[in-house]
């Protein structure tokens, strides 16, 4: 991959440790123009690996939607919610049907 990688000073809470060190990672994929910033931890190496994962997920969700892990997770959640709704609907339909017969 053609990546442009920059390490810049972070901002926000953390005091001197954040203000002095350049542990915020900025990654840009040159051919597509996609960019990602990561400043999740104080460690440069972990921020770098997280930024690469974020960029890969972002790239896959745009250019390879069938292989994207994020899209697969969303589809799985939608499927489970749909199945739960069907189950609830069947449950309450049978309860209301039984109540009508008893009266």
UniProtKB/TrEMBL annotation:
**GO annotation, biological process:** mitochondrial translation
Query: Record's Gene Ontology CC terms?
Result: mitochondrion
Q: Does the keyword Transit peptide apply?
A: yes
Which protein, by its recorded name, is this?
Answer: Prokaryotic-type class I peptide chain release factors domain-containing protein
Q: From the Swiss-Prot or TrEMBL record, what is one GO molecular function term?
A: translation release factor activity
Per UniProt, the keywords (alphabetical) are:
Mitochondrion, Transit peptide
Localization = Mitochondrion
Q: What domain of life does the native source organism fall in? A: Eukaryota
Where is the sequence biased in composition, kind Basic residues? 81-92
What organism, scientifically named, is this protein from?
Wallemia ichthyophaga
Q: Where is this region: Disordered?
A: 81-103
């Amino acid at each position: 991959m053609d990546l442009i990688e920059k390490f810049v000073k972070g901002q926000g809470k953390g005091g001197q440790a954040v203000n002095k060190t350049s542990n915020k990672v900025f990654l840009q994929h040159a051919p597509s123009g996609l960019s990602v910033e990561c400043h999740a931890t104080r460690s440069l190496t972990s921020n770098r690996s997280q930024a690469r994962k974020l960029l890969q997920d972002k790239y896959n969700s745009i250019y390879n939607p069938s292989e994207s892990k994020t899209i697969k997770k969303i589809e799985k959640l939608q499927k489970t919610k749909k199945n739960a709704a069907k189950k609830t609907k069947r449950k309450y339909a049978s309860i209301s049907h039984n109540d009508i017969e008893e009266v």
